[in-house]
Amino acid sequence: MIKQCMLQVKKTAPLIHNITNYVTVNDVANILLACGGSPIMSDEAEDVEDITSICSGLNINIGTLHKTSIEGMFKAGKKANELGHPVLLDPVGAGASTLRTNTALELMRKINLTAIRGNISEIKTLSYGKGTTKGVDADVADTVTEENLKTAIGFVKEFAKESGSIIAVTGAIDLVSDGDTCYVIRNGRPEMGKITGTGCQLSGMMAAYLAANPEERLAAAAASVCVMGLAGEIGWKYMQRGDGNSAYRSRIIDAVYNMTEDELERGAKYEVF
Amino acid sequence: MIKQCMLQVKKTAPLIHNITNYVTVNDVANILLACGGSPIMSDEAEDVEDITSICSGLNINIGTLHKTSIEGMFKAGKKANELGHPVLLDPVGAGASTLRTNTALELMRKINLTAIRGNISEIKTLSYGKGTTKGVDADVADTVTEENLKTAIGFVKEFAKESGSIIAVTGAIDLVSDGDTCYVIRNGRPEMGKITGTGCQLSGMMAAYLAANPEERLAAAAASVCVMGLAGEIGWKYMQRGDGNSAYRSRIIDAVYNMTEDELERGAKYEVF
Amino acid sequence: MIKQCMLQVKKTAPLIHNITNYVTVNDVANILLACGGSPIMSDEAEDVEDITSICSGLNINIGTLHKTSIEGMFKAGKKANELGHPVLLDPVGAGASTLRTNTALELMRKINLTAIRGNISEIKTLSYGKGTTKGVDADVADTVTEENLKTAIGFVKEFAKESGSIIAVTGAIDLVSDGDTCYVIRNGRPEMGKITGTGCQLSGMMAAYLAANPEERLAAAAASVCVMGLAGEIGWKYMQRGDGNSAYRSRIIDAVYNMTEDELERGAKYEVF
């Protein structure tokens, strides 16, 4: 199934509309091309409806919010909903500021979100609502570990059910659930955290996977998480003397570019609960 | 002549004012440095006239339009026209949205554009005017091939004459014309399409070539197209196991950085009609 | 001391709030991660106070000013001052436009700046005030050389005293002074000037060094300058056939990522006056 999802992306080359932060936008564009999709960026309110209309999926990332881009997010989201396109939200920094938390919560209320992908703190902020400006509480922000895995799966399933969106929590262990089923994925390397924007890149790629697999959205979301983690493992094998986080960033995108369906099938480490 | 144009860029190190999209802006800056020019970016309406005044060329790219940057484009364009600086337009996504199409058309009407560089669909949208929000019609959007080359040359010459701008259509085969003469260029590799922003990079570099060669603008524009395509060929030769579109992006800029006039002369593949 | 400053950054992993240009922002983020810090970007006026509050330092860079981001700079700066966080200003292009010069001067008046880092022309513009739109006069803009070193040291010390900020002038020879003492640093390579944003990257890293070393801010600022220059030297050693400015950019960030305290101590070339 995972393998089939990748094949569909390569076959249909979905054009993805990204309203994303200016920090990691270039990497998001290049990883979309690497995985077989195609990127277009537009956040001006006057432009977004036209752009969303020629695309097959929408990726909203709140990493560097501007008042004008917020307006664009709602307009694009509504248009994408009308057209039946998948919409993904990456709530970067939800919990770190009132503007980010409230924007993410309002997007959840007003836009039909196909998937929400974030780290555990961001997702918990959205789940517990009314995030504070100081970020989520430490006890809530517990990383997903083998010890608390059962609880974490329960939380993600519950929130997916409540929200009606696929919830993807990424970290050392990744969880992806639609409320009924939960993928537990163990690909990736800790050094990926030393690169800015691997999460943003995954969100862009997940939007392409969702767009290319309308009948298999949970598997598609999980597949994109496996691709990103496996690319982190493959890219690491190519690291040479003197290489650091900047070379690693490039090698991960390259690994996505070169990955075949068979490699993915062999390398993907996941269980389904 | 092509060789001479490169020499002039390296000798005069033109400072180029870029009002460009936030997706590929870093690559545009680095390729301008690689080719021997120098970049400065500014899109705030209050800032652009001062910045354009200390530069010797202006590169306008509509890849991520904002209402405020549109105002900056017109202000900078007018000032550059007053000062006799070359102005290049890269109409990214013209035909894909009303805002992009209309902004590009209005820039053509109000600013004296030295050159317009885009893909065939974007250029056809500008030529046939009143672009629709759905992109140009498929029959109009035909790629330039050996089969339709004559017609394509005729179209580009005609549009260059009408518009009063050098028209550069880039793709598998590149066409660059001032209305009288048309360069047909066959450098480059198809894998360049898997990197975001090779077109934007070329536009930045073309602006530097135009600025450094005021007496030979058609040759200068064609030279920059040869440099980009040849860099794509040279960069490809350095690709190693595990490399993909991200490494390739870097290798192309590096190839521009290392290219000599003699290499360009030997490697440039063009005919003049 | 230099070595100790690096250790503190790695130990405390300071989160740095960056209001910076969209050209080099990704490199700033990655070099902050490389050096042991952590980046967050936010320029929207409504967002910046919350973000600054969860950080331990603020980096303001005026490379691509927007009216809205200017508002954000003042708000964030005031909040950081209230909280006692170090604030760094990188006055990119001060002297090149009225907006840039005036914004930098107003930031100096209204915000308590811990450090200002720029090239000699930018710093002289701030020192002589009322910069013109044509950039600083040529005679003022003299590069720091072995010949004029004494005068340059005197100028930087004086301006540091007057402004109450640590002044860091970077170029072939780097000067860092708090008004009493002046570090003269001779690390680095001329090819670093062919990469866009090495200055911006250094500013981000310097903010992290200042944040992690509240008791030793002059040494911390000087240490970050040594790290950047030494990374330029180490990165250069890894350059391979075909590499150019793009590969070099990546290798410098990687060198920061891999640099140990002992390497820094052995490689740092500085004198104190």
Automatic annotation (TrEMBL), chains A, B, C:
ATP binds at R117, T170. It catalyses: 5-(2-hydroxyethyl)-4-methylthiazole + ATP = 4-methyl-5-(2-phosphooxyethyl)-thiazole + ADP + H(+). Its EC number is 2.7.1.50. This is Hydroxyethylthiazole kinase. Pfam families: HK (PF02110). Its cofactor is Mg(2+). Pathway: Cofactor biosynthesis; thiamine diphosphate biosynthesis; 4-methyl-5-(2-phosphoethyl)-thiazole from 5-(2-hydroxyethyl)-4-methylthiazole: step 1/1. Coiled coil: none annotated. Catalyzes the phosphorylation of the hydroxyl group of 4-methyl-5-beta-hydroxyethylthiazole (THZ). Keywords: ATP-binding, Kinase, Magnesium, Metal-binding, Nucleotide-binding, Thiamine biosynthesis, Transferase. HAMAP family: Thz_kinase (MF_00228). GO terms for biological process: thiamine biosynthetic process; thiamine diphosphate biosynthetic process. Belongs to the Thz kinase family. It comes from the Bacteria. One of its GO terms (molecular function) is magnesium ion binding. CDD domains: THZ_kinase. Substrate binds at M41, G197.
